[in-house]
Amino acid sequence: MRMGTATLTHTSALARLGHALSDETRTKILLSLREAPAYPSDLADALGVSRQVMSNQLACLRGCGLVESVPDGRRTWYRLADPRLSSALADLLGLVLAVDPSCCGPDCACA
């Protein structure tokens, strides 16, 4: 089944990205990994969350196909699953800030 020029696969992929970005911690993780790969403990410290929260959020992002784990001896570090995701996040940041930065916040009338 096709919907215009988008396929159900496209729709599913965008829905996964939307789900990932719907949580502030996951969004912060993706933005951090845009800068450089990182170990979960370093991400947890930088973002001020527990290591358990970080583990859960990284598992979600892995499940969405947005990050991948890379074994490094007894540790594992994480990076964006596709380098194009970095550019896509930058484009989304520019778009969201241009549309209306006050929309969809805690005091938004559309909620």
UniProtKB/TrEMBL annotation:
Superkingdom of source: Bacteria
UniProt-listed PROSITE patterns: HTH_ARSR_2
Molecular functions per Gene Ontology: cadmium ion sensor activity; DNA binding; DNA-binding transcription factor activity; lead ion binding
UniProt cross-references to InterPro entries, sorted A to Z: ArsR-like_HTH, HTH_ArsR_DNA-bd_dom, HTH_Metal-responsive_Reg, WH-like_DNA-bd_sf, WH_DNA-bd_sf
GO biological process, one term: response to lead ion
Domain HTH arsR-type: 6-100
Name of the protein in question: Transcriptional regulator
Protein source organism: Cellulomonas terrae
Classification of source organism: Bacteria, Bacillati, Actinomycetota, Actinomycetes, Micrococcales
